[in-house]
Amino acid sequence: MLVNSRISFSQHSSTTLQFLHRLMRSTQTLPLRILRFLRRDAFSSVIGGEAIRVSIIGIMLMTLVGMQTASAKEPANAFIKQLRADGYFDMTIVYLDRLSSYPGVDDSLLQAVELEKAQVYIDAAVASRSVSDRDDYFAKAESSLSRFLENQSHPRLSEARLQLGKLQMVRGNQLEMLDTISANKEKARQSYVAAAETFQTIVDDLREKLKTMRGQSDDDKIDPGLRDRYRGEFLQAKRNTAEARRLAAMTYADPAKDGRQLLEEAIAEFEDLTKNYDGFVTGALALVNLGQSYDALGQAEKAKDCYLRMLEQPEDDDLREAKFQSATGLIRMAMSESPPNYAAAIERAAVLVQDVRPNEVGLQSLASLKLELAKAYLAKAADKENLKKAETNIAESDGRKLLNEIVKVPGTHLEESQELLRSLGIKVAEVKIPKVEDPKNFDDALEAARQLLQVSETTKQALELIERQGGDGPDLQTQKAELNQQWKNSIVVAIEILKRGITMVDASTDLSQLGEARQILAYLLYQEKQYRDAAAVGSFIAQTLPGTELGQQGGMIALNSFQMLLSEVPEAQIPNLIGRIRDFADSLGDGWPDDSLASAARGIMVQLALRNNEFDRSKELIEEMDAGPERARFERLLGRIYWNASVVAKREGDEGEAEKQLKEADRFLVAGLDGIGNAEIESEVLQAALVLAKVRLRQGKGSQALTVLENASYGPLKRRDEVAAQDDAFRGNLAALELNIVVSQMTSPNADLDALMKRATEVMEKLQATFNDAEGQKRLAGIYAEMATELQSELESTSGEKKTQLIEAFRVFLSRIAATTQNPTRLKWIIQTLVQLGESAMPAKAIKAEGQAAELLSSAVQTSKKLQASGEESSLAIQFQLGRAQRLLGNYKDALDIFTAILTEKPTMLDAQVEAATAYENWALILPDRFKPKAYEAALFGARKGSDNKNILWGWGKISSLANRNQQFEETFFLARYHIALSRFLWGRAAKDPKLFKRAEQDIVQVQALYPDLGGDQHKQKFEALLRQIQKEIGK
């Protein structure tokens, strides 16, 4: 949940990098894979004909540079890296040329000036839109590298050679991509070969250096980090050598014939990396390159093996692109079969595509993978002879969806993707890129941004008005699309103008206007979902303008952005992000100690503490907050968490912990509800009140629980219609709780049974009256199911005489309702509830119901007959409950008949399959000895043939096999494995067959070997007890 912001701007959704990609689409740019080869994540923004990367940190840095001179003790290396990273290439070169005149600069940096300049020129070339300018930058980079390489003793020599090799790789790619004439292909090949030679020189040099270091300790004569650096550069250069040769081979029209020697040389290097350095990321990455090399030679099986091995690598951020490339290779191979094996292609890639992260949507490797997967789906859609129409329609829809996603991403896949969409009859609109003119100065940029902001707000309001008016005609859709595009363009252009304008500030700039510009920029970045940049700008404003309104607005944007990032970044980055948020929150506490901004920051800290289950820390932070709605909200949240912890502890049998957590839940929920004040009552408040009533009921305070539900301010019974009218789960939960409270009061010695029975009946009547039409009856069925679940939960929390009395009170109430109602929906609820009550009344290890339990289950069966007589068709869920009732009553044939009917209609209803196998197993216990083996065999292997001559009832064996394929059925898997051993053991006893005892023992030993924990303590105890019993029977 986002904190409340004081800024009034409307919110907007857009893809963070979409605009930058659109800018790149209209120009001749380097392929993305080569851009990343030189510098990862270097996207460009157009400025005055040159594409220069302008980051948010750079904007703030340049603002400071414009107002003050660098200190003599300035950390020069970090400053150079920051300037270069933010695209200020000319300024970086000037700074490097003057570096020797600055006192205090480290000697090692002064000796590496030419290397640093080379890197700047390479970065500038990557960012350049002009082919001639790019070549000029590359030439300057090569000259700088050549000058640096003259110093053969410099420790960064291998790094310089590495950059030279990269440069040669890029130039080779540029020549290859210019056109297809053989002259350029030849030049590209020469550049790749030169790169391979450069990288090979590095490999040879570093190999010798590493040899001399072998066996030496990290004493004062050796830089402790030097060996690791050399090893890293050695592996990188080794892979680059092989990749340069592979790329050189691919410049031939027939790589397998004319480039065979180059490919074989590349394969030798890649194989060495994968065999001897597989513990390093570089060794793992070489797998995909090795697969591509084998693929080029036509050695499909070897290529396939490499791709599969790549996909089997552990999950690691550095390997994800390589996995995308491997999956792409596998799809192409599957689709090249005759006929195309689209099933294998889809199986390989679909899961990988579903697991894509937000920061990966613009990757060329992912776009290529999606393109190949889309082609596989379209091939499936075309297979109308072997597939049903529904299957082909779904396949076409899946393919079309993937294509629609990737046509928004620039890259080499774009033309083919658009053509495929056109073949499906989909018009592909060209994306027009908004033109951004350079502002004359900062004031001009701010004024333009204000106007564009106003345009975006007005356009947004127009869109909202159209949405409220409804309608979906073609003219209206066109108007909406045009307005939406205008809104997006105004934001995109405003962002770019502000970025440029802020770089133009100087000592005369009005600081308040500068603050306003940053605040608008932060807001617009948030609108564009550029949350990292929005957080950076917003936090910068808050920390540089403490105690001001602008600072507060910037802080709110930063907090909101940080919260959004928490839901987006990979799990591995969460700890670092949390650290940043904590630091920022602490700084807000200093700048706004008594303001809502600091309170909001503390609120985020509470959420982070709760996220990490740091309850004590959460309590401390909440208690530090000022009294008010914000504190009350977190008190309610913490109270509900304590309630959940109490339920879990109770379920695990830890009564002491459950009681402790229950008291804490009561304390915080009371504080949170009392602290509402005049705040608006929302559904979250009603949920908290509902939980407090549950707490009071669990504590045996039924009257107090009702008092909470009927509270005039926040009582759910008073506010349910106005706040939770469409929340069926909440209404069902509330009705069940009220019913539980009322019925529990019937167990009191001095209870007014007539009055309580009347109120309980009224609960049901109110629900019926609220949902009295056909649609309402469907919703009511869901509410009744929620009520039954809630009752089951409450029964599980009670025991002994109290539980018996509660069950009896419900039995009396349900019997009275059943006798007077003809409503099918209510009868279904009564059946479901009676079965749950009956099962709850049975002792823990009982197989057949007796006494009160049998009476309840019999009532459920009788009620079902009344439902059947009404002509209402029972749902599978109700039939399932009746099947369970018959099994628990010992009517096994009747139960199996019901389960057969259910599973004929829905074979994969796993709960019903488990019940059927259990019914056979239980039935065998009471059958005459001659029939027992047959029943145990049916429990194990299934029974009752269907029209396809396969068993409708699967048995424990097939249940186990199918449950093992899905993590969510882990509990069912271990249950089935236990019963496989149990049924076989009991079968052996009945048949007096020692071989079955041995098989039963083997069943457990095999599961124990594969799954040492045996599914947890409860399952483990059962497995071990059964194993002892079996071994005793065997005589061990």
CATH architecture of the largest domain: Alpha Horseshoe
Mean pLDDT: 78
- CATH C-level name of the largest domain: Mainly Alpha
Q: What gyration radius follows from the Cα positions, in whole Å?
A: 36 Å
End-to-end span in angstroms? 61 Å
InterPro entries: TPR-like_helical_dom_sf, TPR_rpt
TPR repeats: 284-317, 876-909
Keywords: Coiled coil, TPR repeat
Protein name: Tetratricopeptide repeat protein
Could you give a quick summary of the protein structure above?
This protein has 1036 residues and is mostly helical. The protein has 47 helices and 4 strands. A hairpin with a 2-residue loop joins strand 1 (45-47) and strand 2.
Can you walk through the features of this model?
- With 1036 residues, the chain is mainly α.
- It has 6 domains: 1-17 and 437-452 and 493-503 and 512-623, no CATH class; 27-154, no CATH class; 314-432; 627-723, Serine Threonine Protein Phosphatase 5, Tetratricopeptide repeat (Alpha Horseshoe), CATH 1.25.40; 726-890, Serine Threonine Protein Phosphatase 5, Tetratricopeptide repeat, CATH 1.25.40; 910-1036, no CATH class.
- Strands 1-2 form a two-stranded antiparallel sheet. It has a two-stranded antiparallel ribbon with strand order 3-4.
- Helix 32 (702-709) runs antiparallel to helix 34.
- The radius of gyration is 36 Å and the shape is globular.
- It starts with 17 loop residues before the first helix and ends with a helix.
- Mean pLDDT is 78; it is low at 1-74.
- Keywords: Coiled coil, TPR repeat.
- It comes from Novipirellula aureliae.
- InterPro entries: TPR-like_helical_dom_sf (IPR011990), TPR_rpt (IPR019734).
- TPR repeats lie at residues 284-317, 876-909.
